[in-house]
Amino acid sequence: MDTVALAVTDGMLHFELSVAYEIFGSAPDAVTTPWYRLSVCGPSPVRVGRFLLEPDHGLDRLRYAGTVIVPGWADVDVDPPADLVDAVRAAHEAGARVASLCTGAFVLAAAGLLDGRRATTHWAHTGLLTDRHPRVSVDPDVLYVDNGSVLTSAGKAAALDLCLHLVRLDHGSSIANTVARRLVVPPHRDGGQAQFVTTPLPARTDHPLAALFPWVLERLDHPLSVEDLARQARMSSRNLGRHFRSVAGTTPLRWLLTQRIRRAQELLETTDDTVDAIASATGMGTAATLRRHFNRAVGVPPDSYRRTFRSPAGRL
Fold first, then answer.
1. How far apart are CA 294 and CA 300, in angstroms?
2. Looking at the whole model, is its pTM more than 0.70?
3. CA distance readout (Å), 280 to 245, 273, 289
């Protein structure tokens, strides 16, 4: 995996592209082991935001790389170029490890690399990815997903996490930590950690769940079940699940748990309420239950989260 190729074309996001170039393009001073040989592959020239980029090689060279990185795709409403999709697919068939950053997952999905696999992307686009590629198991709540030869990350900062994860796989934790220190970022955030955002509510007001979402958010302190939500939405539990997957990109229970965790985050940031009180206010029941779900979803205990994210307005 010592050769890394960035797959670029018009419409890529420059932040994710820059992240990958910074991490794989040059080794930190303290690293003496052989580093990656990085190349930029794409049609010439490439427009990346307001920048013009001159690739080293054409997209056909992707198949010779050990690792192919696909940065974020700016306009997810437009299908990615066929030549990019074909080149990424050919690279994977030739044995390359392929990783997408943020909305680059749409390129991998178009290439068929995510069919039957778990994947993620920026939380704002997980529903669209699910609708457009129903054979992909989209997880909206994680930073990145490692399927071995195919990896996907969530948005922006999660691109850093996935790139550091690749360095850790190839060079070990010590060198990955050295790279992280150079970038002044946390050395390791596990891929299963939450994206620190709530699943967005759809903007449309005419979808079948339009009235249900605010109804639930007003009752997070209640012990709600899927049957309760289905009854309120006046549909069967099975039909509710289908609509939830289409609109929110997840299941009713996963969405409900995400909202409870998000409410707990808000209370930890802005109040002095005890963990017991917050557990009650978010429908978790007990502090032990809140701690278990919170730690699993966010990656840190509630007390640690409060110390890190406590807003000045919430301090006494």
1. 7
2. no
3. 28, 11, 10
Please tell me the distance from the alpha carbon of residue 190 to that of residue 145, in angstroms, as a whole number. Answer: 10
Q: Phi and psi at residue 97, in whole multiples of 5°?
A: -80, 125
Place of tokens 């437009």: 78
The set of residues, in sequence order, having a beta carbon less than 8 Å from that of 216 and lying 6+ positions away, is: 224, 229, 232, 256, 259
Count CB-CB contacts under 10 A for residue 291: 16
pLDDT for 311 equals 52
Rounded Cα distance between 125 and 241, Å, is 19
State mean pLDDT over 207-223. 86
Distances, alpha carbon 80 to alpha carbons 59, 74, 75, 105, in Å = 14, 10, 9, 11
pLDDT at 244 over 90: no
Phi-psi region for residue 75, left (φ > 0), alpha (ψ -120 to 50) or beta? beta
Task: Please check the confidence at residue 313 and state whether its pLDDT lies above 60.
Answer: no
Which pLDDT value is given to residue 195? Answer: 62
Cα–Cα dist 72/124, whole Å:
13
* Nearest-angstrom CA–CA distance, 285 and 300: 19
**Residue 200 clears pLDDT 60, i.e. is over it:** no
CA atoms within 13 A on the CB side of 1: 17
Residue 140, CA distances (Å) to 67, 73, 128, 270, 312 in order = 24, 17, 11, 25, 30
Is residue 150 classed as helix, strand or coil in its secondary structure? Answer: strand
pLDDT interval class at 255 (50, 70, 90):
confident
DSSP structure class, residue 314: G
Q: How many CA atoms lie within 13 A of 272 on its CB side?
A: 5
For 40-90, what is each residue's pLDDT tens digit? Answer: 999 989 888 888 999 999 999 999 999 999 999 888 999 999 999 999 999
